[in-house]
Automatic annotation (TrEMBL):
GO molecular function ontology, one term from the record: arylformamidase activity
Protein name as catalogued: Cyclase
Signal peptide: none
Top-level taxon of origin: Bacteria
């Protein structure tokens, strides 16, 4: 089995609209910290100086959103009320694991440019590779945006899906749609300008808001989709971190090839 990493790192040195804070406690300081914690919480006395080099374990503390790095949006991210089921969208820890492992399909959107593509464009790409999408497949969109990761342009120059394209994939039984871009929707400027020009409310976050009517998940901020040797013939594993009550969770997305 061959593995291809499809994930972007969580990197405090990269540019983010909401910067990541990453504090590292050294192994020496970790020894003192552990000694204090054991005394405070468990009544155990331990002298860290007896450890080799006076070191125990390093500890990393991060402050970031669940939408930093490669992550999966849960239905509850799209709004507080759903039109399906009992009206309560599920959080990331409540979703079936089966959704996050299955046959993958990668579509090439690199020629579309910033903005959004429609259902006709998606069908054309599927026809080009001779593939019919089926239920349970995980569809990945290669926009080329991952080359800009870590820069401000990553958040403004990419291709998303409009409402028709999103609903088309959901109509085929897809539960998980992924992208190497910052968002499955078009960049902010494109959406807002479209709305201001036409007055169409459906121009605003159509891919996300589709999740208020159809239960599905998005993987955002993927990477290395260009490394996949073919549009099909691989599996995707993208289990989300189990954060209770959260609208998203980080994932180490990986492609598995025979």
């Amino acid at each position: 089995m061959r593995f291809i990493d499809l994930s972007t790192p969580i990197d405090a040195t990269a540019w983010e609209p909401e910067p990541v804070e990453h504090q590292v406690m050294s192994a020496a300081d970790g020894a003192k910290h552990m000694s204090e914690e054991m005394r405070t919480h468990f009544g155990v006395e331990f002298d860290p100086s007896v450890l080799p080099g006076g070191e125990l374990l390093s500890i990393d503390t991060l402050s970031l959103t669940t939408h930093t790095g490669t992550h999966i949006d849960a239905p509850s991210h799209y709004g507080s009320v759903a039109t399906y089921g009992d009206g309560r969208p599920r959080h990331i820890d409540e979703l079936p694991l089966e959704w996050f492992h299955g046959p993958g399909v990668v579509l090439d959107l690199t020629g579309a440019g910033p903005g959004a593509v429609d259902a006709a464009f998606v069908r054309q790409q599927l026809d080009r590779i001779g593939h019919v999408v089926s239920a349970g497949e995980i569809v990945l969109l290669r926009t080329g945006a991952s080359r800009l990761s870590g820069t401000p342009a990553y958040f403004t120059d990419f291709t998303g899906l409009d409402g028709s394209a999103t609903h088309y994939l959901l109509d085929q039984g897809v539960r998980v749609i992924g992208t190497d871009a910052f968002s499955l929707d078009a960049p902010f400027r494109h959406m807002i300008e479209h709305y201001q020009r036409t007055g169409e409310a459906g121009a605003l976050w159509p891919a996300h808001f589709a999740g208020r009517d159809r239960e599905y998940c998005q993987i955002e901020r993927l990477a290395h989709l260009e490394s996949l040797p073919a549009p099909t013939g691989f599996d995707v594993s993208c289990f989300p971190v189990k954060i209770a009550g959260a609208g998203a969770g980080w994932t180490r997305a990986v492609a598995l090839l025979p």
